[in-house]
């Protein structure tokens, strides 16, 4: 190479090096990109966690707890208190599965429980699952598990423990029959006392939930009967005169 061309070659190489795109050395790591979020928000995973109580005449609890990337579903109970000494032994289920939208699709897993134990061999012969649909008022559970004793059933509606029902405000002195019918459409009323004022045991799912007194002076029934003559009768809201109102709400007795 002629000596006069060597300085020109050095200059050309230097200019080529300066044309490298700056982004190649300044690109941030993927996790630092604007708008990126952690793989899983810490409180998003904990929202459904907690204990729930079965609604109705059966007694059972549902516990939901995060387990790695899935959810642990623990169920216990399922017998009816109304059966008394004839009630079946409580049942238990342990299951685990992912949360998809508002539903946990869990598979029953081997466990050693207080009232029941299930082995891997049991589940190999008869696999089972538990579905938990989460809603604003609690959870609805359905399961095809067949290991519970006769009379015990863990499928049903569960409310978060300690949460007041949204319709609880309707059960108050001054409430009208129309308000009570709208809040508790399936409730039944048993006349348990007729003097000096009639007292009605409000029952839901076969169990008493409150004792109500109305302002009808024993003339609450729409068919003209005096409630003193109808002690023991079980009626619906339509059996009461629409104008009567609640004067007293008491805790239910078993």
Short description:
With 254 residues, the protein is mainly beta. It has helices spanning 6-18, 23-26, 42-46, 120-125, 177-183; strands at 50-54, 58-67, 70-80, 91-97, 99-100, 103-108, 111-112, 117-118, 129-135, 138-143, 156-160, 188-193, 199-204, 207-214, 234-235, 246-251. Helix content is 14%, strand content 36%.
List the helices and strands and how they pair.
Blueprint: H1 6-18, H2 23-26, H3 42-46, E1 50-54, E2 58-67, E3 70-80, E4 91-97, E5 99-100, E6 103-108, E7 111-112, E8 117-118, H4 120-125, E9 129-135, E10 138-143, E11 156-160, H5 177-183, E12 188-193, E13 199-204, E14 207-214, E15 234-235, E16 246-251
Antiparallel strand pairs: 1-2, 1-11, 2-3, 3-4, 4-6, 5-6, 6-9, 7-8, 9-10, 10-11, 12-13, 12-15, 13-14, 14-16
How would you sum up this structure, described in words?
The chain has helices at 6-18, 23-26, 42-46, 120-125, 177-183, and strands at residues 50-54, 58-67, 70-80, 91-97, 99-100, 103-108, 111-112, 117-118, 129-135, 138-143, 156-160, 188-193, 199-204, 207-214, 234-235, 246-251. Strands 1-2-3-4-6-9-10-11 form an eight-stranded antiparallel β-barrel. A five-stranded antiparallel β-sheet has the order 15-12-13-14-16, with no helix packed on it. The chain has a two-stranded antiparallel ribbon with strand order 7-8. By secondary structure, it is mainly β. The termini are far apart. The protein has five helices and 16 strands.
Low-confidence stretches: 18-46
Strand order of the largest sheet: 1-2-3-4-6-9-10-11
Characterize the overall form: elongated
Main sheet? 8 strands, antiparallel, barrel
Q: Indicate the proportion of strand residues.
A: 35-45%
Structural class of the secondary elements? mainly beta
The mean pLDDT is 78
End-to-end distance, in Å? 110 Å
Helical residue percent band? 10-25%
Rg from alpha-carbon coordinates: 33 Å
Q: Can you count the beta strands?
A: 16
H-E order: HHHEEEEEEEEHEEEHEEEEE
Number of helices: 5
């Amino acid at each position: 190479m002629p000596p006069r061309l060597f300085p020109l070659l050095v200059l050309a190489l230097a200019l080529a090096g300066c044309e490298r795109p700056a982004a190649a050395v300044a690109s941030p790591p993927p996790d630092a990109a604007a708008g990126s979020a952690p793989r899983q928000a810490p409180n998003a995973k904990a929202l459904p966690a907690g204990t729930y109580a079965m609604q109705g005449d059966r007694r059972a609890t549902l516990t939901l707890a995060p387990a790695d990337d899935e959810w642990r579903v623990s169920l216990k109970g399922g017998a009816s208190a109304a059966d008394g000494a004839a009630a079946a032994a409580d049942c238990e289920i342990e299951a685990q599965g992912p949360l998809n939208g508002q539903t946990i699709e869990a598979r029953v897993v081997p466990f050693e429980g207080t009232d029941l134990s299930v082995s891997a061999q049991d589940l190999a012969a008869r696999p089972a699952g538990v579905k938990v649909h989460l809603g604003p008022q609690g959870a609805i559970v359905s399961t095809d598990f067949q290991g519970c004793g006769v009379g015990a059933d863990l499928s049903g509606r569960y409310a978060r423990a300690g949460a007041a029902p949204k319709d609880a405000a309707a059960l108050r002195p001054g409430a009208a029959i129309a308000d009570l019918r709208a809040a508790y459409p399936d409730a039944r009323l048993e006349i348990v006392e007729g003097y000096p004022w009639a007292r009605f045991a409000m029952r839901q799912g076969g169990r008493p939930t409150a004792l109500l007194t109305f302002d009808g002076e024993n003339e609450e029934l729409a068919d003209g009967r005096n409630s003193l003559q109808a002690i023991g009768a079980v009626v619906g809201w339509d059996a009461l005169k629409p104008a009567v109102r609640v004067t007293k709400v008491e805790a239910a007795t078993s």
